[in-house]
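Example record for the data management plan.
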Amino acid sequence: MNSPSQTLPVSVQQGNIWRLAIAQALAGANAIVIFATAAILGSMLAPLPVLATLPVTIFVVGMAACIWPMGVLARYYGRKAAFMAGTLCGTLAGLIAVLAVMQTSFWLLCLSTFLGGAYAAVVLSFRFAAADGVAPERKARALSLVMAGGVAAGVIGPQLVTFTMNLWPGHTFAGTFLIQALVAMLSALVLAGVQLPATPAPVAGQTAAGRPLSEVIRQPLFITAVICGAVAYTVMNFVMTAAPLAMHFCGYPQSSSNLGIQWHVIAMYAPSFFTGRLIERWGAMPVSMAGLLLTLGSIGVGLMGIEIMHFWAMLVLLGVGWNFGFLGASALVLQCHSAEEKNRVQSLNDFIIFGLMAIGSLSSGGVLTAWGWNAVLWASLAPLLLAVLVLLRVRKG
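Corresponding structural encoding:
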């Protein structure tokens, strides 16, 4: 279900897409800094080795915990208010991480990554914000183009880590986190110029416009969208969280890990330049299916060996699979709600996805430490196969 909403002038639509794509790039760089450094720094600061990836898990928990409050903020005060709150969290995340390094505090690091997750919760709405005020037949393309901003993040983030990790002598990554805070502040300036159609704020004492959420979540299409989005993101995060630490355990230098993450993130977002067109031509379900199958292929590559090329090739395939799987699922969500329902339904979708993803992220470090890298890969197969079966069943139905 998707009722028409206010359509913005083409020039405003294009301006919004550019600004949101740039903000996606800057915010993506913030997230990459966390993924590239938190597990390694965590292994240095954690009281127990099994807690090494806890800061990354806390990042995901921060996303899951803040998606709904940020959605409520957007619903009452507009998306831009949520954007500004998110960039403030991103700035604080960088500054608190500097303090964590200076004081060698594992728990300050966890607080920092929680705030980074709050920032990421807002960034998730960029893809849906790009579709606001856009004609229905062009929504998938707008969503896709904003996600393409992550290509720049794939270049900026890892290089930011490589060139700043030793900028502050004696305090590894402190300089990186300081730059991270400045990047979040720059993102706020870019987002200030976004112009979105107004959504009527709920009136106190009245029920929300549109259908009850209980009715929305019973739609087979919504259930399919959530399962595919959750599996695409959870498996990607589960494997990516463990990959830098696994490369570290295999004796590869930080620069090799950074390069692997760089190409992974580029692979996550580069297909977005054409994913929207593929969705328009073939439909969201086939594109999401292709993403799940590519992710299965990435797991197969990872199981072939632990040479650096195995890690890099696996991460690239994992990124492309995530793009098709997650964007296809996001396009399905746009078909499940009216304009009045969008903030509630989109927030619910992301809350479910990242709540489940937090569980996978929490177990990633423990699985890697206890049973090794191959166990991480084998554990990814079951949810992928489940999502494939659900998609096949819904398409036949």
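Summary line stored alongside the record: Residues 203-207 have pLDDT under 50 and may be disordered.
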